[in-house]
UniProtKB/TrEMBL annotation:
<dbReference type="GO" id="GO:0046872">
    <property type="term" value="F:metal ion binding"/>
</dbReference>
<keyword id="KW-0378">Hydrolase</keyword>
<comment type="function">
    <text>Has a dual role in the assembly of mitochondrial ATPase. Acts as a protease that removes N-terminal residues of mitochondrial ATPase CF(0) subunit 6 at the intermembrane space side. Also involved in the correct assembly of the membrane-embedded ATPase CF(0) particle, probably mediating association of subunit 6 with the subunit 9 ring.</text>
</comment>
<dbReference type="GO" id="GO:0005743">
    <property type="term" value="C:mitochondrial inner membrane"/>
</dbReference>
<dbReference type="GO" id="GO:0033615">
    <property type="term" value="P:mitochondrial proton-transporting ATP synthase complex assembly"/>
</dbReference>
<keyword id="KW-0479">Metal-binding</keyword>
<dbReference type="GO" id="GO:0004222">
    <property type="term" value="F:metalloendopeptidase activity"/>
</dbReference>
<feature type="region of interest" description="Disordered">
    <location>
        <begin position="1"/>
        <end position="25"/>
    </location>
</feature>
<dbReference type="InterPro" id="IPR019165">
    <property type="entry name" value="Peptidase_M76_ATP23"/>
</dbReference>
<keyword id="KW-0645">Protease</keyword>
<dbReference type="GO" id="GO:0034982">
    <property type="term" value="P:mitochondrial protein processing"/>
</dbReference>
<protein>
    <recommendedName>
        <fullName>Mitochondrial inner membrane protease ATP23</fullName>
        <ecNumber>3.4.24.-</ecNumber>
    </recommendedName>
</protein>
<keyword id="KW-0999">Mitochondrion inner membrane</keyword>
<dbReference type="Pfam" id="PF09768">
    <property type="entry name" value="Peptidase_M76"/>
</dbReference>
<keyword id="KW-0496">Mitochondrion</keyword>
<keyword id="KW-0482">Metalloprotease</keyword>
<keyword id="KW-0472">Membrane</keyword>
Length: 239
């Protein structure tokens, strides 16, 4: 690279940093500079997103490898994952490493279920093995519901709300410790129910046929009692 090209690259970095606080680059100095900008509140929301995207791209191979190793371990040793796998198999389905995929996701979600393809785990969003286990369990509840109740995913918001209520309630993602220590939800009563309701409303709100948050809340409330009480295939809320 010529001196003029190096000067131009440095100038582009500085111009970007002036507007968002984010400086492109993979070297250690640039990474520490960006982290300091985040910690000191000098990086904008746009800059933070650019930093996260660059980090996810840089770590994609390692993130996916770690996700796959943890996925395989959970499929073999996690009681809740093994139980859900067996329940899905009894309904004629099959979820295992061949259709539970670890990928880098560009939107900020933990995972997803598609009846045709299986489960997506967003490797760049997984904080640890416990988070991965909760995400797998959540999506496997969706798979169970799809097979048992013939969920209409695209048109029936009541179906979507019901399976979201069940998945959040049964997967473990709304357990007290996770809400208290990781999400700053510091209530001691009705915490589990409030978490399930909140996450179900957010999920329904994101669907194309949902008009607004009030519509999402109305649909969730309509199915709440029956769906929250339904713990199948478990005898009770396991986690």
């Amino acid at each position: 690279m010529t001196d003029s090209q190096q000067s131009s690259t440095a100038s582009n970095k500085e111009n970007n940093a002036d507007s968002t606080g984010y400086v492109p680059g993979d070297d250690s100095w640039t990474q520490w500079r960006n982290i300091f900008a985040i910690l000191s509140g000098k990086m904008t929301a746009e800059g933070k997103e650019q930093f996260r995207v660059a980090r996810d791209i840089r770590n994609e191979a390692a993130d996916c490898k770690r996700c796959e190793d943890q996925r395989d371990y959970l499929l073999q040793y996690s009681p809740v994952i093994r139980f859900l796998s067996d329940s899905i198999r009894q309904l004629g389905g099959d979820l295992s490493s061949h259709n539970i995929y670890c990928r880098r996701c560009t939107n900020r979600k933990a995972g997803g279920f598609d009846p045709e393809y299986g489960i997506l785990l967003c490797a760049n969003e997984m904080r640890d093995q416990g988070h991965l286990e909760d995400t797998m369990a959540h999506e496997m509840v969706h798979a169970h519901d799809h097979l048992r109740f013939k969920v209409n995913w695209t048109e029936n918001l009541r179906h979507a709300a019901c399976t979201e209520i069940r998945a959040s309630s049964l997967s473990g993602e709304c357990r007290w410790a996770r809400e208290f220590f990781r999400r700053g939800q510091w209530k001691f009563t009705q915490q589990h129910q409030e978490c399930v309701r909140r996450r179900a409303i957010l999920s329904v709100r994101a669907r194309p046929t949902c008009k607004d948050e009030a519509h999402a809340e109305k649909v969730v409330n309509e199915v709440w009692d029956s769906c929250f009480r339904d713990t199948r295939p478990f005898d009770e809320i396991y986690r």
